[in-house]
Specification:
The protein is an alpha+beta fold and 455 residues long. The chain has one domain: Outer membrane efflux proteins (OEP) (Up-down Bundle). It has 10 helices and 9 strands. The strands form 3 sheets. A 4-stranded antiparallel sheet has the order 2-5-7-8, with no helix packed on it. Strands 1-9-6 form a 3-stranded antiparallel sheet. A hairpin with an 8-residue loop joins strand 7 and strand 8. Helix 5 runs parallel beside helix 9 and helix 6 runs antiparallel to helix 8. The chain is elongated. The N and C termini lie close together (9 Å). 29% of the residues are buried.
Length: 455
């Protein structure tokens, strides 16, 4: 039996390798639809958007209404009838016969009124509040993008983890088949007296070990499937259709550094936090200025005295002269917060550059490793074929056949792991640049190579 590795050069999208099952793109769609972390981030975005809309309302007039029904102890009156005796000497007899009292307000009254307040000057507090709300929304959007990129990297890790585990199961199964075939050969040779019982024991031991490794690989595949189901928030996942792949080449380091500087979600989040800190300074600075508002009000009433006005307009002014140095210290604290945010931004820029460079170098290393392992697999494959022929001609031992079979399986798995590491590292690299969605461009690239094993 001959075991061979086939590296398929994909001139078509890799989704054509299987007609059924779930592709990585479909798994990504399920994750976006169902993942609770992404849903929580979407709600945070909506909250920030609503807060920004609320901040716009600070520019608008405030209109309030008041209504009441009141019963006083008694009518409010002015009564000067007791002064009549003092005026009896005057020739005003007709007037003295009149009632010299006047009701200012009846005891039962009701009213409804509306007041309008328009801010004229607030020291820039309203403008700063709106800019802060904008920055908060930008921060929420950046945080959502960062979480989405993180979840996508996790999806790639778990999806290709299933692919890797499936391939390892296949390789282990091929190794078991090869050992079983060798066991049959060694049994026939033993019956003919051409080998000793020790050779049979060696093959049995190797076969048992290979079966144990196959069972372990199957258990790992079960765990990997559960992990993928957790990320996509689905009950079960069918077999995967997007194979592990490697690329012939990727862009240079400068390209990824530039993209990270422009699109990294964490840097954008920090920029938004810096803007928040600057606007917080503006808000506290406004406390040193007076607030000026225009006011107007009017209304209707029942049994309301005619001497009371029905409307009024004016301008209000408010300024705090002394508040125990609270605003001075608050303003100083806001400036310190802004300086801290600037320092964090500088540190984050350096960390992101280092991360991108590290991930890029790892991708290149894994590509080179896959390339060198291709030659190693070809050599191990030919060596196993030759050693089997030599064994049939009694020029090689059973131990050599076992070692060659296991070496081929180990080399195959090593290349699978290198390709898997390339895929997951590439996903993290694109996450760092804020372009996780470009992962599918690499999959569908004409330079991509899918790895698949056949017996």
């Amino acid at each position: 039996m001959k075991i061979r590795i086939i590296i398929l050069f994909a001139s078509l999208p890799l989704s054509v390798f299987a007609e059924e099952g779930i592709s990585l793109r479909r798994a990504s769609e399920l994750t976006i639809e169902n993942n609770h972390t992404i849903k929580a981030a979407e709600q945070q975005q909506l909250t920030a958007h609503r807060n920004r809309q609320a901040a716009r309302g600070l520019y608008m007039p405030k209109i309030s209404t008041t209504a009441a029904w009141t019963t006083l102890q008694k009518d409010l009156q002015i009564d000067i009838n007791p002064l009549k005796p003092l005026l009896s000497d005057l020739d005003i007899t007709p007037l003295l016969g009149l009632d010299w009292s006047y009701t200012l307000q009846k005891r039962n009254l009701g009213f409804i009124e509306a007041d309008i307040t328009v801010p004229l000057f607030t020291g820039g507090k309203i403008i700063a509040a709106n800019r802060a709300a904008e920055a908060s929304e930008s921060a929420a959007n950046a945080e959502s993008r960062a979480l989405s990129g993180k979840v996508f990297s996790e999806l790639v890790e778990r999806y290709f983890g299933v692919v890797l585990a499936s391939n390892v199961v296949e390789v282990r199964a091929l190794a078991v088949q090869a050992m079983e075939q060798h066991l049959q050969d060694i049994t026939l040779l033993l019956e003919n007296g051409m080998v000793t019982n020790t050779s049979l024991l060696q093959v049995n031991y190797a076969l048992t070990k290979s079966r144990q490794e196959l069972n372990s690989a199957r258990s790992a595949l079960t765990i990997a499937r559960r992990g993928l189901s957790t990320t996509t928030c689905t009950d079960s996942i069918g077999h995967t259709t997007t194979p592990i792949f490697i690329c012939g080449a990727i862009e240079g380091l400068d390209h990824f550094l530039e993209r990270a500087e422009q699109g990294n979600a964490q840097l954008q989040y920090i920029d938004s936090q810096n803007e928040l800190a600057r606007q917080n300074i503006a808000i506290h600075r406004a406390d040193f200025f007076p607030e000026v508002v225009a006011i107007a009000g009017g209304g209707f009433g029942h049994n309301i005295s005619n001497i009371l006005p029905r409307w009024a307009v004016g301008v209000g002014f408010r300024f705090t002269i002394f508040d125990g140095l609270n605003r001075e210290y608050s303003y100083a604290a806001a400036k310190s917060t802004a300086k801290r945010a600037e320092e964090l931004k500088t540190a984050a820029n350096q960390d992101i550059k280092l991360l991108v460079e590290s991930l890029y170098n790892k991708c290149i290393d894994y590509l080179q490793q896959c390339s060198s392992l291709s030659y190693a697999i070809e050599f191990a494959n030919d060596y196993l074929t030759n050693i089997k022929v030599a064994f049939q001609e009694d020029m090689a031992t059973s131990t050599e056949v076992i070692d060659a079979t296991l070496a081929l399986a180990a080399t195959k798995i090593e290349q699978l792991e290198a390709a898997y590491n390339f895929d997951t590292t590439l996903a993290r690299l694109l996450e760092a640049t804020g372009e996780s969605e470009r992962f599918f461009d690499y999959i569908e690239s004409i330079n991509s190579k899918a790895i698949k094993y056949e017996e």
